[in-house]
Amino acid sequence: MIWAIIYITAVLAANYTATWFIPMPVFGLVALGAVIFGVTFTARDYVHRLGRPRVYVMIVIAAWASMMLSVAGSVSWRIVLASTIAILLSETADTEIYHRLLSKRWLVRVTGSNVVSIPLDTALFNVIAFLGVFAVPMLVAIMWGEIVVKFASGAVVALWRLR
Hints:
two-stranded antiparallel sheet, 5% strand, mainly alpha, globular
């Protein structure tokens, strides 16, 4: 249950900070939300122990809570729309890949599912949220940086779990 709470909290915090960009050497700008959102990939993988239906309930709750942030006026509707679509599609892909890898070691399951879901999430979110806001070369640089940051923050949580 704690991992579901961490997941939902990280999704909301990532949405809230999605437009707070920090300079990163080599990558240019990376949204603070991407650093936070990297945690969600590993947090969700912990919830898989409770079964696929509970993972989907958690994903839907996170998407709904994100929409409520927009209704409350705390987050732009464009960020929430981007987040909701990206969460529903990338997290579904991640969940299905993770479950196909159940016979493998935990770290293989996490890495295998994240290889697909992190780039998918990053592309969907950034294109929907920021296409037309940033020039395409800047948007591509942001996406590349966020993919690296999400993998890194997810890996830190995964390695912490293994210790």
